[in-house]
Amino acid sequence: MAATTTVAISFVLLPLAFLTLLTPLKAATFTIVNHCSYTVWAAAVPAGGGIQLDNGQTWTIDVPAGTTGGRVWARTGCSFDASGNGNCQTGDCGGKLACTSYGTPPNTLAEFALNQFSNLDFFDISNVDGFNVGLDFSPETPSGSCHGIQCAADIVGQCPAALQAPGGCNNPCTVFKTDEYCCNSGSCQATDYSRFFKNLCPDAYSYPKDDQTSTFTCPAGTNYRVTFCP
């Protein structure tokens, strides 16, 4: 009789456990808005691709839960043919309107990894690939430590001469290609160039090891808004 009871209980509990494990995590909705006075070509990888956004236009994409290495950025000075082939002055991704690879510096980045450690989303704004367009990266519903970040300073207008590039301000790694700036060994420190970016945009990554002041979190399942030229 006891054996029969045990089997019956197991039959009820196991399916419930499996149902819990198999419940899909919710995708995050990213609303991407162009507040620039000019046209940009928004890009998003690994989900999204790319699209032209004129002033005031919005692009909405759903990003699967668990996505890592996610980026959203604006491309400028683009020209594409009817097949979606062409090029951009900043942020170009292999000459494609619908990006499947990261953009070419200089480009300001909204970066994210969803549903990671402790069921948190990790997100940041990065100038490690330089700067082309100001960004605001915010949760749709801020709460407590889950709040928006922004990099909207006139970095292009104040860009050091050595980093100046058509349409943007380069990062020093792209220009000098040394370990001091590229952090290939993992032991690099802040430099005068990284401090230039950090002073203008305290929330944003200024060099690859700038983690402590530049990484932010929200609960998994949060939806986000990325605004160009906030």
TrEMBL record:
InterPro entries, A to Z: Osmotin/thaumatin-like_sf (IPR037176), Thaumatin (IPR001938), Thaumatin_CS (IPR017949)
Gene3D superfamilies per record: Thaumatin (2.60.110.10)
Signal peptide span: 1-27
The organism's place on the tree of life at top rank: Eukaryota
Keywords: Disulfide bond, Signal
Paired cysteines (S-S): 36-229, 78-88, 93-99, 146-218, 151-201, 159-169, 173-182, 183-188
SMART domains: THN (SM00205)
Family (UniProt): Belongs to the thaumatin family.
Protein name: Thaumatin-like protein
